[in-house]
Description:
Blueprint (H helix, E strand, L loop, with lengths): L1 H25 L10 E3 L7 E3 L8 E9 L6 H6 L8 E2 L1 H16 L4 E12 L2 E10 L3 E9 L4 H7 L7 E10 L7 E9 L1 E10 L8 E12 L1 E7 L2 E6 L5 E12 L5 E14 L1 H6 L10 E16 L8 E14 L2 E15 L4 E13 L30 E20 L8 E19 L12 E13 L3 E10 L4 E8 L3
Amino acid sequence: MCRTAKYCLWLLLALASLQSLFAQESGGPEGKPKKEKEKHEKNSSEEVYVVPAGESPFIVRDIVIAGNRKTRDKIILRELSFKSGDAYLLQDLVKKFELARQQLMNLALFHEVTVALKSFDGYNVDILVTVRERWYIFPIPYFRPVDRNLNQWIVEQKASLDRVDYGLKLMYNNATGRNDKLRFTLVSGYSRQLLLNYYRPYIDKKMKWGLSFGISLGKNREMNYNTVDDKQVFIKDKGYLRNFSRGYAEISYRKAIRTRHRFGISYGSEEVADTIVKLNPNYFPGKRNRINFPEIYYIFDYTNLDYIPYPTKGYAMEASFGKKGIDKSFNSWQIGAKASANWQLGKKAFTSLNAFGTLKLPLDQPYYNRRLLGYSDIFMQGYEYYVVDGVAGGYLKASVTRRLFNFNVNFKGTKKLAPLRIPVNIYGRIYGNTGYIYDPNPGDNYLTNRMLFSSGIGIDIVTFYDFVFKLDWSFNQLGQNALYFHRRSIF
């Protein structure tokens, strides 16, 4: 009973924070309406302030960019919420500087960004944008466990090297100076895979339309063919049990700064050995051992975060709609949404809410399309050793975080290499999760069709190249508790 009350308390705290979000969106701190703003259509800005009578604005005369050896000026200018000729009061211009720095850092192209006044000439001002670029090309060895997370690989699979993919990965960011990204990965070991994709955010002169495309090919000797007791069940064979391929093309549209629309089409092929069909006739629809299906999808993104890899303030949302297949061999509609909100509680602390929800139709889906909680970045803390399959559901996560330490690790430079400064930030965190997954055919699984709860404390380390390492001590409603590791980086 005490444990249930504790989880309910977490849920009430999350809902109270959500109510606070709507209160803030409707007005200022005391419910007063925000300053009147005049919307206008232009590439680099979403809004301009109306200057109060009797106050003289400063006019942006020139914008000077320094430090960008490879990144093109227009990529930097695209992220600024002001342009030459705009007029702002000084306090509003300073706010624009912080927004510009935030937007440029979120490009993941620079180690540091400074936006400041360069000079005055009466009410005309020149602005200096100084950046320090990252290293953009990474030909690195590829070594990654195939299991869903490090905890499952280390604890349940005994860190078996038989369950590791290895190979070579080439990451070329900012390949042409236009913030484009090239990825090539050649994988051996547990899987045999070849992956190639290219992304360019802008392909037109007005810098609104982008393009992405890629292919992936692979095969496996071991595969997950069912879920029993909320655990993946695997089978391994000397021959290949699964062959797959996928190609996709996507266009994106970004009119202003915070929102982006993505439209994509893909074609996939999946084939499994007859052994898999015998073990799980519902793996594919109609007891098939092969499916080929097209897919179309639309994704809407809104991002207003201070630092995307580890946000401490701001809001973000993603809504998606997709259709897989067109006939009885495979037919699925899916809608989903993610949202996050972060509010600062002072200079060193902040609180966060993260929500996720999805629905797949029709509700009677084959096993191949029922994977939901526990896969990729869709998980609840405290349930890392489990998967919860289903066709509908979601979760709500609430946390309070405080920065404990921050320092720099400095390396002296040489004649060929400049000095290097690596920032390190360490945070302490308490959190609670609640969720629910619906499955009309749960089989021998007991975490579906019931409310799930968990809570815990954690330590986060945030450092160079957007590397985030999380160490969580989580408790779930099954009476289990353990330490769990989570990692996120560009590699």
